[in-house]
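Support request, please re-run this one:
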Amino acid sequence: MSLILGLGLGLLLFCFLWLNLLSLPGNWLMLATLCLLAWAGPEGRITWGFVALMTGLALLGEIFEFVAQLVGGKRGGASRAGNLAGIVGSIAGAILGAPFGLGLGSLVGALAGAWTGCFAMELLRQETRHVAAQAAWGAFWGRSLGLVGKSAVGAVIIVMSVARFVSQAA
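Re-run finished. Output below.
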């Protein structure tokens, strides 16, 4: 029975993992599930100490996502304003794209928003189209790497949580 419950937990957490790709708080929903299990689940399987460890991992994932976009934009030659515009554009694009493609539009919107926001700001700063495009591609690839890193952290949370849940069964 423990194995079946563990697989159910894994499936639920895996569904939340996909939300990361839609620029939704998938890792944080995983943590909410773990909090619920620590509070009301089977005794000793998911502890508050384990939840704290997973919270630290989720925070690292968020930091990685943010830093990856900043570094990507910088490597592409984006200014501070261009980087900020790329971040704002990414958030706006994810929100505006969410209704399309069964929610997958938010992934496209986040990436396109990072590119467009950075490109537009660099043009406003009187950069040439070539320089602005180069900076925008940096923001785009940085955002892409950030999403991959954050999702990888989510996968680690899933594996550790399911392993802990199943191995701590009485």
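The mean pLDDT is 92. The chain is about 85% helix and 0% strand.
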